[in-house]
Design brief:
By secondary structure, the protein is an alpha/beta fold. The chain has 2 domains: 115 residues, P-loop containing nucleotide triphosphate hydrolases (Rossmann fold); 178 residues, Nucleotidyltransferase, domain 5. 40% of the residues lie in helices and 20% in strands. The strands form 3 sheets. The chain has a 7-stranded mixed beta sheet. Strand 5, helix 3 and strand 6 form a beta-alpha-beta unit. Helix 6 packs across helix 7 and helix 11 packs across helix 13. The longest helix is centred in the last third of the chain and has 34 residues. It is elongated. The relative contact order is 0.09. The model has no long low-confidence stretch (mean pLDDT 90).
């Protein structure tokens, strides 16, 4: 598809000597993936010439399409481009795009395609995928095998049986969690993605901003900023840091433009500091943060509470990229001996933002129950009167 876009752009481009490129992670990949296609789709165009040694196609109007690699991107510095397609973006470095491609495109106001298969979230392909969801200047498209029907269902079923569900979803269903076995919320996040509930979710000044915390000092302290708008929960911002005291986080809240409502914290906010004799809640109150304590419930109940509210959530992909990575990564470890997943999730970087999310889920559930009880009491008093 992108090679045909490059060919079309080469033929209709009105700039002097248009230059276009297809870039793969290695030179060998570029040749084996694209060269035969390029020759096939240009063979009927009059005046077209191919250079086998340089993997380039020259057109009669002076345009040229060249196949390149990202192995040593310094070797292609200084070129100019009207259009470029970068394949298997998860395998290329950020330096290629920042230091070579962006300057090469800027002179000609060129366009860039980033295509590939998801390979987890610790790469630039995932970063740009999130960017495309929050920035209207980018276009994003997923081509799932189950939607395109290009591959026969019989072949897909055979691939699923051989590869297993996780790897299959990565290779055929464009899943960024395909390499994360035992992901707890991954499927729900993919559902949000499909429903276009992850992207540009702006702050609405007409509604209060609430926060949900996971407190920590040596470990990360995580803060989720959200708004309750009708039945939806808009997660508009996220902040995380470590080895910072409470005054730092109070300053972070003040620096933002938000007007705050409730601040939800876990039960350990009631812990008393030995040196001062004050609880964390009392100290926070001195800095203008009046915490509501989310109910203390078993871990699995908290996970269930998050699963119940996630379908109602909309998430800002730009401000909450770290939170989204944690959501997709949070997982249970597989026990090879017993052939089951362990009940307790793996404790890693994703644990703290997920603790904050559980605090959010249980906190607003408790608040909803409190509001209903108040309403019932008020209605009861009215009937008595």
């Amino acid at each position: 598809m992108v090679l045909n876009h490059l060919i079309r752009a080469a033929l209709i481009n009105k700039n002097h000597n248009p230059r276009l490129a297809y870039i793969a992670p290695t030179y060998k990949q570029a040749k084996s993936i694209a060269w035969d296609y390029l020759k096939y789709y240009t063979k009927s165009i009059p005046g077209t010439k191919w250079n086998e040694s340089e993997l380039r196609c020259d057109f009669i109007n002076g345009a040229r399409i060249t196949l390149l690699s990202s192995e040593n991107f310094d070797s292609i510095r200084g070129i100019y481009l009207d259009m470029v397609a970068i394949d298997e973006v998860a395998q290329v470095s950020q330096g290629l795009i920042d230091e070579v491609i962006t300057p090469a495109l800027s002179d000609r106001r060129g366009k860039m395609f980033l295509i590939g298969t998801p390979k987890g979230m610790n790469n630039i392909f995932y970063d740009y995928y999130l960017k495309s969801q929050s920035d209207d200047k980018w276009y994003s498209y997923k081509a799932k095998a189950s939607d395109t029907n290009i591959v026969d269902k019989e072949e897909l079923d055979a691939a699923l049986a051989v590869m297993g569900e996780a790897k299959y979803n990565q290779e055929f269903e464009c899943s960024f969690i395909g390499n994360i076995s035992g992901s707890i919320y991954g499927t729900l996040v993919d559902d949000l993605d499909e429903a276009k509930r992850i992207g540009n979710i702006p702050y609405d000044p007409a509604h209060l901003v609430h926060t949900a915390w996971d407190l920590g000092y040596t470990d990360a302290c995580s803060i989720i900023f959200f708004q309750q708008i009708n039945h939806n929960i808009h997660i508009i911002d996220y902040y995380e840091n470590e080895k910072e005291a409470l005054p730092h986080y109070a300053e972070v809240l003040k620096e933002k433009e938000y007007i705050y409502g409730n601040h939800y914290a876990p039960h350990d906010v009631e812990q008393t500091d030995f040196s001062s004799g004050y609880t964390r809640r009392e100290v926070a109150s001195n800095y203008g943060i009046r915490f509501r304590v989310s109910p203390r419930i078993p871990l699995e109940d908290g996970i269930h509470a998050v699963k119940m509210i996630l379908p109602r959530c909309k998430i800002n992909s730009d401000n909450c990229s770290d939170l989204l990575i944690a959501l997709r990564h949070y997982h249970r470890k597989y026990n090879d001996k017993e052939r089951v997943y362990k009940i307790k999730p793996v404790h890693d970087f994703s644990s703290h933002p997920m603790d904050a999310l559980r605090c959010l889920a249980t906190g607003i559930q408790e608040q909803t129950l409190t509001n209903k009880n108040r309403q019932l009491i008020a209605e009861g008093d009215y009937r008595i009167l």
